[in-house]
Structures are given as structure tokens and as C-alpha cells.
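Hi V.,

You were right to ask for the full record rather than a summary. Here it is.
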Amino acid sequence: MPETTISTNEELCTAILDLIEQEKIANPVSYNTDAPYQCYERIGFKGMRWSVEKRIREYGLEQFFNPEHAVLDIGSNFGFFVAEFGLHCRLAHGIEPTSYLNKIGELTSEFVGSRDKVEFFDETFERFENSIHYDTIFSLAAFFTADGRERSTADSYFGKINAMLNENGHLFYESTSFIRDESFKGYPACISAIEAIKSRMELVRDWETPSGSPGYRRHFAIARKKH
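Predicted structure:
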């Protein structure tokens, strides 16, 4: 996509929609088949999930706004969380194996004014290596993903997160949607995630809420790196 100067919300949203169309062609497991997956009120972009701003409010993520901190978003998708946290933190990184989606994040962070503190990596978390340690790592529906791409063991996945955190750093975990039924693959994956978090980190809080269709749930956890 050629570089262009984007000066309005409408121009940005048009550019994002164009990149989504390219992503849908290139990615056989795209989340954008019916409608754009993510939503960002700040730029007037509508999608299927709650907006970035609403998720921050509902999940209490303002507690991780800190101008001295570095944050990492695993599976950053459109990069909207990264762009937003770049406005409130020292730096914000996103890992996303789909380059079209990372381009959306770059355009968005440039538009909102956080581009100088934002970086995206075109790879999976399993392959990601970085010398930087983070104060907060977000795993938002990124472990045992619905598209089937992420299938690390919970021990490997959360062990790597723990190793990448600074002293007293935090993990914020959101499961993928599940039904409380052992035959539903997302449920045992959530259980193994919580067990792995508890075995490696200090669990600060965990809770569960309804999600989407009737009967579906999401589990959340906040954990701190052990001394």
C-alpha cells in the first residue's frame, strides 16, 4: 500500500478497511470475514468487539497507564490497544503474525500521535524474541486462539511471559470464549492457563463473566511476577 498522508478519521477508516480486505484474501483464518473484528472510538472505527475504550473501562486497565512503563500486547490484531497504550506509557509493542493488521496499527498510532512509542512485530509469540523486558503484558484472547494458530502448552506460554516481565511486572490475561464443558476445547485450555499462571506468578485476582452468546464465558486474571 503506498504511503499517503491521512488527515481525517474518514481517510483513516477507509485505509483500514482497504487493509482488512487485503488481509481477508491473504489470511485463511481471518477474524474479519463478517465485519471488522475490533472497534476504536477515538478514530470512529466500528467493529464486532467492544471498543478499545470500553474494554479498558470494563477490565480496569487504566491501572496499567504509566508514563514510565513498557507494555506488550500479544496478538495485537488491528493494533488499537497498542496505539492507545502508546499515549499513556513509555512504549507499547504489539505481536501479530499478519502484516496487514500491523500496518493498520502503524497508521492508527501515527494518526492518534503515539507512533514514536509504538512498534509492531510480524510474528507469533512462540517465535518472538526481544531484549526488552516489560512492565505489563496483555494476553487478550491470545492463548489457545479460535483460529487454531496458537497452540503452545500453557507452561511454555506463561513461562515465557513470566521471563519477559520486569520485577513486579504484571500479566493481564483474558481467555477466549468457552462453555463450561470439558468437551469444549477452550474450557480445558482456560483451566490449564490459570494453573500455569498460579504456578509461576503471584495471582492478584481472577474472575469470570458472560461472553457473547448465551452459555459462553470468559475468564480473566491479573498476576504479578514473583520476587
